[in-house]
Structure formats: structure tokens, C-alpha cells
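Purpose: get a first structural picture of the assembly so the mutagenesis plan has something to point at.
Setup: two entries, given in the order below. No constraints added.
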Amino acid sequence: MRRYSAFAIAREAARFHTGWERAWRSPEPKKKYDVIIVGAGGHGLATAFYLGKNFGITNVAIIEKGWLGGGNTGRNTTIIRSNYLQDPSAALYEKARSLYETMSQDLNYNVMFSPRGVIMLAQTEHEVRGYQRTAHANALQGVPTEFIGPERVKELVPIINLNGPRYPVLGGLWQARGGTGRHDAVAWGYARACSDMGMDIIQKCEVTGVRQEAGKVTGVDTTKGPIDCDKLGLVVAGNSGDLANMAGFRLPMESVALQALVSEPIKPCMDVVVMANTVHGYMSQSDKGEMVIGGGTDGFNNYTQRGSFHHVEETVRALVETFPMVSRLKMLRQWGGIVDVTGDRSPVIGKTPLGNCFINAGWGTGGFKAIPGGGWATAELIAKGEPGPLSAEFGMERFIEGRFIDESVAAGVAH
Amino acid sequence: MLILECPYCGVKGEETEFHAGGEAHLKRFGPGSEDADFETYLFMRENPKGVHLERWRHANGCGKWFHAARCTMTLEVFGSYSAQTFEPPKEIKDKISAKRPGWSWRNFS
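Result (C-alpha cells, whole complex):
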């Protein structure tokens, strides 16, 4: 792999950009791999990357039914934060956030991580108390956050309306080190690094069955024929339920649609990420100037990758109330992704009832921010066969044991 | 857009008139049951890509709970039926079979 650098740009400029090579290879699948990862999204590619980087396992295939990074990795609102209430989540998401800080250097690929700061608005007395509690919990976890008053919110976000008719802004939970990143670049950067380590990324190849023998996985059937493997990682977000069906077990998850939309590009007006969980809306401004907007999920099971119109209306209503200038904006695009939501709104990283088959799923509405941490933890799980310290609490058995990582209250609706 | 019909009052409406209540025909477990049974009842879900039997409430209407059979891939509603039943009536099953031959849902099809 030729490194990207300022010199590379100069060199290519001198020869009319004829020397750029493809970022990753597109090989035909081999007969057998040590590890097969199903799903070439952020988490799948990150898992493969850390398998190679941390454990030296490079005989790996990453199988993707569509195109690389075309699922939720390319459909989210790119928010990165780690201000979670519970210790296991804070550890996992903070690991991810810290890996984002050096990701561009680690991958030699600009993922445009922008630690611009994230505010979660407190708009009811309960939220004020809740976020103060989170700020104290974060202090104990070593995650720098602070609870700020309305004046400081206004200072950080001049376009905000503090005295909305329904829910005035009473303060906010501020994580200065949170921010945004370029979601596609995260997938592309990991893919390029994986391909460079000799891993095979096989796109447009759908898994149609999971082969097993004596309770252990032996391979997968795909649209490009059967492929054998020693270990299998299922990292397919919204399609986890479907794949679990093929493998013969059920999951504590349901798939629902989550939507996002962007406005026309405007001049810079907001340089932080603002989330308003009481009114269900969150917004940040992309480098192109578009306001990137997200809301809540639909209430019913859905695999269509599109959402209901009334949720768009609800989200925009919430934002018009919080940022009156939004009412003059035209919305350019709207899209949906399918997220898998667990009973306690925390992900599952762990073993499955099928031997040598591991799962990373259930990220619900907040998977993007966790990509490097989730990949790191899943790689450790697959390499050692047992969960490491980061994923120890995230196994599926927590639903039998009643050992929930209850973030549904702490995180509100928006992740 | 999802259009549902309430089997009680016969009113047709789009999804904002109703409230989704999750997977239908769950087997309930009470005090004294095994941990694994509680897990199945409370958390484990079919989550199929295709025919889904589910509960809805006519929230902005008669207020009653009912069942609906719907495809999660196309949002097509095959029909709705009474809440007072453990499995879909034959005409609903036939309607689904006509459109999705070979479908199954747990132990009935």
C-alpha cells in the first residue's frame, strides 16, 4: 500500500494523478479462512483490523451483501461521544472515542475526526438531575464532562432559543472532547488497512446459510458459494435477527427504522453538536454546511430502510422550537437505516449458542461512535474465544441473569 | 405509509392513529418461573424479515388492543384480528399463505 501524504499529493500532481492505486482489493473468496466476519460496516471492518493489528490474525474474510459501509455506517449522523451513565458503557465508548483521536494517523486515512464538543440539553427538571448524575458518574469513570448552565449553552450555541414555549433550556451535559467524524472515511480507512494486511473484503456476496457440525460453526453458504472458516463473527446490525435465524438461535433484539435528514448547505452557524432528548431531535453542521438532523426510531419492526413521514415532522418540529432559524431551511435529503435494539438499549458483544460463532450487534441508535471500541473488543473476543475486559459485561447471558446495562433512561432516545 | 384497520370499530387509519405494541402471541411466565423462561418472554424476539404477527392499539380511536399480520420487508398488512386469541384465525393465515407461500411463525404456519 502506498502511503497517503503531502508528498504523495505533490508526486501525483506532477504526473496528472495517474499513479493512485485502488484503496482495497476486490478478490474472489478463497475456500477457507481462519475467521470470517459477516458485515463490512464500521464494526465488522474494525473487528477485522484489530484482529490483524492486535492479534496477528490476517487470514480473514469480510463478507458484505451490499457495498462496503453502505448500511448504518453510511447512514448515521456521525456523532461521537462517551458520556454514558453505566461503567461498562462508559469504558467501551470512551475507548472508542480515544481511538478516534488517533485514527487518521493509525490508518493513514483522514477520517476528519472533529472534537468540536457535544451538548445534551436538559429541558426538564428530571433531565437536569439526570445529567448532573451522569456528569458525576463520568467524573468517577475518568470521562471529562460537565454540567453547564443556560448562559454557557447560549455562549456555545448562539442560534439556540433558550426560552421555548414548551421546554426551556435549563442547562446541558457538555462533553468538550466529543464531536463528529466522516462516517464513510472510517469504513474506507479500515477497509484499506485490512486489505493491506492481506484480508479479503468480498462485496456483493450475501450469506444465505450458516454451516455447522456438532454444535460448532464450520462455514457459511453465500451467493458466491460455500466458504469454510474456523471462527465466525456476525456483525450485521439491523440484519442480526435474520442471520441468527440462519444460525439457529434467537436474539434479544428487534429491528426498527431510524431516520436522518440534511438541510441545504448554509454558512457556518453552529460549531458544536446539540442533542435535545426531551423533544427528540439532534443537529450538527457538516463541513459542507448542511445541517445534519436526526430524531427517534419508529415504533414497529421494519426492514425497509426507510422511515415514517410523521417522524420527520416530529423531529423538525422539535428543532424549529429549539433553533427557530431552522424554519427557513429547505431539507435536501432524508434516509433511513435499520437498527437492532436490545431490551436494555446496550449492545451485545459475546458468544452465541453456536460454538465458535461470535456476535457484535444491538448497537441500536448509537453504533457509529463505538466503531473502534466495538471492533477492538470483538477482535479480542474472537481471537481468545472469551470476552476481554471491555466486553465482559456485554454478553447475551445478561438477559437471563438480569444484569442489565440500563442505558435507555440515561441515553434518552438519541444516541 | 402504514395503513391499518381496527377489527373492532372497523376504522381504517394510518400509523399515527395507532400505537405499536410489539410481538404478538408471546407465552407469558409468572412468579416462580425459570430464569430462562423469563428471558424468552421478556427479551427474546422472532424479529423476522418477512411475516410478523404483532399487537397494535387503536390509541386515537376506540382504544382497544388488536393483532395484525404484516410484512416487515414491504410494510404490507395482511389483515388484523381480535386480541382475544392465541393464534391468527384461518382466514388471516390463508391470506398470508396466498401472498407468502411457505411462511411460518414459531410453530404455526
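Residues 410-415 of chain A have pLDDT under 50 and may be disordered.
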